[in-house]
Amino acid sequence: MVQIVGKYQYVSAENFEEYLNTLGNTEIAQSFLHSTPIIEVQQNGEQWVITVNNKGKTGCAKFKLGEVYEEQLLSLPNSFKSVTTREGNCFRTETSFSADVKSVRIYEFTADGMTVHLSSDKSDVKAKRMYKRL
C-alpha cells in the first residue's frame, strides 16, 4: 500500500485548459488555470485533511470517507458539496458545482507523487494534473 499522507508539488498538466472550458463557468476555469499548488494530505483517525497552498492563498478540506462535506475551493466565494471515497491507492472525490455540473477527481497516489484525474458529466474531455512528492 502506497503512503498517501505527505506533501505534493504541482509539476505539469495534460488537457487542463480544455477540461476547464467544458465546465461552462469562467470563474471556476480562471481560478484554476494558472494554479501551481502544493497539496498536503494528512490523516487524524478517520478524518482526512487536504490543504492546498497556492500563491499565498490556502484552502482546506476536512472530511471522513463516504460522508458529504462542504469543500471550499481556492479563489471561489462559494463552497460546494463533495464526497470522497477511497479505492486502493486512490481517493475519488465527486463535487457538485451546480445542479447540472458534477465533477470527479481521482487522486492516484504513487511512491513518487500523485496524479489527479479530472472528468465531469458535462463532456467527455478528461484532464490530468501531476505532482511530485516532497
From TrEMBL:
InterPro entries per UniProt: Calycin, Fatty_acid-bd, ILBP
Molecular-function GO terms, alphabetical: lipid binding
Keyword line: Lipid-binding
Organism domain of life: Eukaryota
Similarity field: Belongs to the calycin superfamily. Fatty-acid binding protein (FABP) family.
Protein name as catalogued: Fatty acid-binding protein 1, liver-like
Organism: Dinoponera quadriceps
Lineage of the organism: Eukaryota, Metazoa, Ecdysozoa, Arthropoda, Hexapoda
